[in-house]
Amino acid sequence: MAANPLSANLAFNTIKQQIGWTDWAMAAIVLGLVSLLVVLLILYVIYPPTGKSSPDAPKLAKEKMGPMSKNEIVMAGTLLLTL
Fold first, then answer.
1. With contact defined as beta carbons under 8 Å apart, do 20 and 2 qualify?
2. Nearest 5°: CA angle at 79, between 26 and 25?
3. What are phi and psi of 47, to 5 degrees?
4. pTM of the entire structure?
5. What is the pLDDT of residues 39-53, one digit of tens each?
6. What is the mean pLDDT of residues 12-35?
7. Residue 2 has pLDDT above 50, yes or no
8. Backbone angles phi, psi at 16, to 5 degrees
9. pLDDT score of 3
10. Is 66 left (phi over 0), alpha (psi -120 to 50) or beta?
């Protein structure tokens, strides 16, 4: 099934070419990745990060949050299993 059935039907009737979902995905992935990078670059220029280095972050996190609880460990393991 094509992403746009009307366009797929037009392509089939005009040039007898069947366009499937993977064809649409392969055609769109390049533009999608380029636009993602461009948007990230524009946002980085417009809203630059205020803190670019935080070497004390792990130490501060341990002091303020403490060790991971059992529920947090189970959640982290579940997340890793789903990936």
1. yes
2. 5
3. -120, 75
4. 0.49
5. 999 999 999 988 888
6. 88
7. no
8. 55, 40
9. 54
10. left
Distance CA 30, CA 37 (A): 11
Task: Name every residue whose Cβ is closer than 8 Å to that of residue 21 and which is 6 or more positions away in sequence.
Answer: 1, 2, 3
Task: Choose among 57, 56, 40: nearest CA to 48.
Answer: 40
Q: Which residues contact 24 (CB under 8 A, 6 or more apart)?
A: 2, 3, 4
The amino acid sitting at 21 is W
Q: Cβ contacts of residue 28 below 8 Å, gap of 6+? A: 3
How high is the mean pLDDT of the chain? Answer: 88
Tell me the H-state helices in the chain. Answer: 5-15, 21-46, 57-65, 70-82
Q: Which residue has the tokens 């393991």?
A: 77
